[in-house]
Amino acid sequence: MLGYIREILSEHNITLCGSLPLSSCRVIRPYLLEKHGIGPGGRVFVFAVPYLAPTGAKPNISAYAVPEDYHRFFTGLFDDILPRLREKFPGHRFAGFTDHSPIDERAAAAAAGLGCVGRHGLLITGPYSSYVFLGEIIADPDTAVGEDAVIPDVRNSALCENCNLCAAACPYGLSGGCLSAVTQKKGELSEDERNMIAKYGFAWGCDICQEVCPHTGAARSRGSIYTSIPYFLRALTPRLTRELVLSMSDEEFSKRAYSWRGRETILRNLELIEKSKPGTAGGTEKV
User: Which residues are designated catalytic?
Assistant: First the structure.
């Protein structure tokens, strides 16, 4: 079955996929498995979706939010894959997940041979560093009969060396705080939070820990880091401005990963960044 799933995924330019028993995964939302009638003897097929696009401009939002919302991509992907699996294996159950998953996705991906979990908590792959989304297809027990215990992807050799560069560069030192979480916070921010947004210039998210990782530099040098998936190469908005955000229709805005927090959150962050620039009212070189 892994070969068949890899074949389908390759049609979508997804090449990193591994397999492992559900019993080898840490189940964190068992109700999702129960909802789809998948028991403890099931099989997990986990895959990595590269999303980084060359933009030609330094983004002021996290790279994952530059294209349209990745959840929309996965919806279309599973709409293609799952019916084909059910047709090939009639009478069996399959379910697709990303983000809101019944299992610990990063640990499962590492166990399946897709890479390793880095000091920054993200999965690091050989070709794409940590610029990947994770997804999985979980099959019921009967369908998984005959699969090997673990089938790693031999193209991956990523291994976190604990160089600590990500912790050193992180605005919060990977100590519990997170700039990305601050940019997504609704309502009133503390003075420290406002200063953090202004200083680092991210209107949404943060890629600092990913960018300083040696595996990111290596993947850039090899030329393998960028995605070839069309969805993540179109409708790119690497640099948000107040004018751009306000000009988006409600439909356009709803397609963006940051839409769930509303326009006001993004507009607040952009205002903080703008005010910190030299030459603007109240702006200074340092905050």
Answer: 99
